[in-house]
Amino acid sequence: MASKADLLQAVDDHQNELLALLDRLVSFETMSPPARNTAAIQQFTDAELTKVGFETKRVPFYKGDELLSAEKVGTDAESFHSLLLNGHVDVATVDRDSWDTDPFKVTQKGDLLFGRGVSDMKGGVASFMYIFTLLHKLGIELPGNLKFQSVVGEEAGEAGTKTLLKNGEKADFAVVGDTSNMNFQGQGGVITGWITLKSPHIYHDGNRAAMITTGGGLKAANMIEKMMVVIQALEKLERYWGITKRYPGFAPGIDTINPAYIEGGLHPAYIPSEAKLWITVHFYPNENVDDITQEIEKQVIAAAKADPWLRDNLPTFKWGGDSLLADKGEVFPSLELDPDYPGMKALEKSYADIVKAKPIVGMSPSVSDSGWFGYYHIPAVDFGPGTMEQAHSDNESLSLKQLMEYTKIMAAFIFDWCHTKGEQS
Fold it and tell me: Locate the Peptidase M20 dimerisation domain: which residues (predicted)?
């Protein structure tokens, strides 16, 4: 059987195959929004994985979208570690007029590869699939199970990864190959929520004077104006969090509450009888969704009870959701890293062997699907090529040197980890 050294040499020898694969993945216009356009790329990925010995399963998601999970069963899976690699194939929306090249074709200029998704994160997906091909080409059989998830929905807060993990997919360790500039990253969490104020009655705007003038006699309120009570309560809590909370790897004040969108009223002839505020909440890795939402509700309800009208018409709350597009809500759980976990140690060794330096271990300024692995108690890390500056950008690019370096690290790690004995697979 070929050795790890043979595998690493093959990464260099067949570089053009990696670039051709990346170009093929980029050619699928899987923008989200509008989404509902990933069935074709998942069918392509399914066929490619089947060629190299993976057992595959496509899971229906939204109409036009599919999830794909694949596994290459190890030769001694009961005794050796299993590994799960995860990547999303949906990409950010494109304004073609702002691009200097065709966004759906990889264009190389020196060390840079241009194309939508090369950094976020078809570069990582291409790297994984390329390694699978080389393992097959070299006849390398891994003792431990090697698993792969090609998911969709990450760009719109849709629960692609959550759906597969909720169905019971697991492994001893998981690597999410999303944009991290080859740093080892955990993340804070994000949840969106709707806060609704609703009047029990609807009034013509001709009644406004009776509502606001001394002696008017009409106990009523404008819900858009009353929403200011809610926003001020959120601002006070946000400032309090910034003063009192900290987490290593984050600058103070990263835990924010953003009033992102507000809607209310019928038209100018009516007093607004309903208003809804859509907020985005960022929290630290050592916090959970339930505690955070309860704290916000407690703060807002207290402010409402101090208001003479709202105390009899308290706000209501709706948290999270499985899609920003379908139900206007999302959740990205947080991920705490365990630097002493054997999988992290093994990945760190592979990194050091290839790069001749230690990796930077820290926290992502954004969020990815990696948090779902923490939520389902699977040790994991976000580790991928590409920079946050390039993700979603016009003329998105990726360093070829970094992509090759990343591929070698992951090839070495896959070989070593799946050859390491563990308690379960």
Answer: 219-306
Q: Which region among 136-140, 214-218, 258-262, 341-345 has the lowest average model confidence (pLDDT)?
A: 214-218
CATH architecture of 4-187+335-417: 3-Layer(aba) Sandwich (3.40)
Domain locations along the chain: 4-187+335-417, 189-319
User: What is the SS3 assignment for the chain?
Assistant: CCCHHHHHHHHHHCHHHHHHHHHHHHHCCCECCCCCCCHHHHHHHHHHHHHCCCEEEEEECCCCCEEEEEEECCCCCCCECCEEEEEECCECCCCHHHCCCCCCCCEEECCEEECCCHHHHHHHHHHHHHHHHHHHHCCCCCCCCEEEEEECCHHHCCCHHHHHHHCCCCCCEEEECCCCCCCEEEECEEEEEEEEEECCCCEEHHHHHHHHCCCCCCCCCCHHHHHHHHHHHHHHHHHHHHHHCCCCCCCCCCCCEEEEEEEECCCCCEECCEEEEEEEEEECCCCCHHHHHHHHHHHHHHHHHCCCCHHHCCCEEEECCCECCCCCECEECCECCCCCCHHHHHHHHHHHHHHCCCCCEEEECCCCCHHHHHHCCCCEEECCCCCCCCCCCCCCEEEHHHHHHHHHHHHHHHHHHCCCECCCC
CATH number of 189-319: 3.30.70.360
Q: What is the pLDDT of residues 399-418, one digit of tens each?
A: 999 999 999 999 999 999 99
Which are the catalytic amino acids? 90, 154
